[in-house]
Amino acid sequence: MTKFVQIHTLVSYPPSNLNRDDLGRPKTAVMGGTQRLRVSSQSLKRAWRTSDIFKESLGSHIGIRTKNMGVNIFKALTTGLSLVDILKDNTEVSSSNSIISEKEAKEWSKAIAGVFGKSKKGSNKEAKDSLVDLEIEQLAHFSPEEISAIDQLITKISSSGSAPSKDELNLLRKDHTAVDIAMFGRMLASNTKFNTEAAVQVSHAITTNEVAVEDDFFTAVDDLNRGDEDMGSGHLGETEFASGLFYTYVCIDRELLESNLGGDKELANNALCALVESMAKVSPTGKQNSFASRAYASYMMIEKGKQQPRSLSVSYLEPVKGRNMLKNAIESLQKTNEKMEHVYGDCCEERLDMNAYTGEGSLEEMLKFVSS
User: Fold this and answer.
1) Is-contact 61 179, C-beta < 8 A?
2) What is the pLDDT of residues 170-189, one digit of tens each?
3) 12: which strand partners?
4) Is 184 inside any structural domain?
5) Which helix (H) or strand (E) holds 185?
6) For residue 127, what are the domain limits?
7) 3-state class of 236 per DSSP?
């Protein structure tokens, strides 16, 4: 019986700035008394759930997280366009062909969006001159079923010319099959009944090796500067970067994932496969245009069973060193796991790994394993 699925990966990134702090520096953490690079779990989850892999595998089961649903509802009400089309195209829409008054559209949009979060408060002037009061204060994750229900309500109230009733508004929050919500959870402060407990726990990725963040001083040349008078550059700048071999740990409550998806085992399997493939192939998007720091996982280990989960980050309390850093990191992970099982007994019922360093295993085998 599979209660938990645990995934361990090692990914090496060249000079990069994948995930920045408030000063624009690569995020770091102290572990084992030494500085390491860090990529936050929020950054990793967003990269995975918005990836082409997720879209291609789970397209009709992916939600939208936004503060601006009320603004898009207003556009639909004042143009007669479908909310789904507006969200898909993400284009500015003129309200010149309004089918109901803008005043009513704002009131109704605010009421509909307010079902999923408290409306944002702007100044009276801001509210009058813009759509700022149609935004909600916190990001809300809307499932495809809820977006469809909102779209249907827009069509109904547009045709009738009457405001949505309280009962109609209460029916907008629905049980859903949004994989991203089922995996990573959501909180609706307005109605906790529709909260979703995350079935997937994601660690902050942290380097197995000690790192030093370095500075890159760069210049940009003005193409029209012929050097007749000014030989200087058109722009001077500075950015910071570092490189390292990252360890990431993910724990999935398989039973909770299926429960969050209404018991749909096939959809849960597809979700697990999309997650594993994304972990193996998808990189965080930070500063990619500047560093092209895309990478595949060099090592992955998946464990299944009902034993209590545990991370193997302890493998890297002492930073990995030497010319064969990847080889040493893989061996450290495997040895730590062996020693833990010697002390605690089996930590899982089934295990499979993929090692790009030695050319053993395959992603296809990992996907079959995680979905079986």
Assistant:
1) yes
2) 999 888 899 999 999 998 87
3) 245
4) no
5) none
6) 64-177
7) strand
